[in-house]
Amino acid sequence: FGIASDETFVITTTNRKEITEDNFSELVQDGVTLYVLQSVDQMLLVATKERIDFLPHYDTLVKSGMYEYYASEGQNPLPFALAELIDNSLSATSRNTGIRSIQIKLLFDDSQGKPAVAVIDNGSGMTSKQLNNWAVYRLSKFTRQGDFESDHSGYVRPLPVPRSLNSDISYFGVGGKQAVFFVGQSARMISKPAASQDVHELVLSKEDF
């Protein structure tokens, strides 16, 4: 690695958790991506990439929303799909001490790429592992633990009430993926955890699959 004998360094996960003798067996698993840094909070010099493995057939993701939304009892299915995407932002901003900001933008400028739906919020942000978890089909927000923590950490299911802004739509951890691939052909998630300097990006694409 080109590290001089008099230099010190740390090894961390992409979540900036330092690898130690005590947590080695917990954090270091097959396929995990690690950083060799001068310090835990060192700025990254270049962008890094991490592979995400999917067990289900890709059709499970790219076609999973079709039946659910086309079977919406004669109603326009698009609002239901958008509601699933907004639910992620509702969860992310639920613990904000200040203003909760959620924007929905419809982008049609060909010079900026293909048409897109953008949902932007000022929530807590997600780590690389939380983005990884979001990509995995049928990984409920209630069963994600350890370093592969939930993208809604600390979430408590609200008491049964009429459907409202209680962020309890995607209970089984599939709604976001179904909505994305009902609306379009790819998803790009860009997130910066509130307590981190790292910006994480996840791309899911039918073309890449």
UniProtKB/TrEMBL annotation:
One GO process term, biological-process aspect: double-strand break repair
UniProt superkingdom: Eukaryota
Entries under Pfam families matching the protein: HATPase_c_3
InterPro entries named among the record's database cross-references: HATPase_C_sf, SMCHD1
Protein name: SMHD1 protein
Organism: Orthonyx spaldingii (Chowchilla)
Origin organism lineage: Eukaryota, Metazoa, Chordata, Craniata, Vertebrata
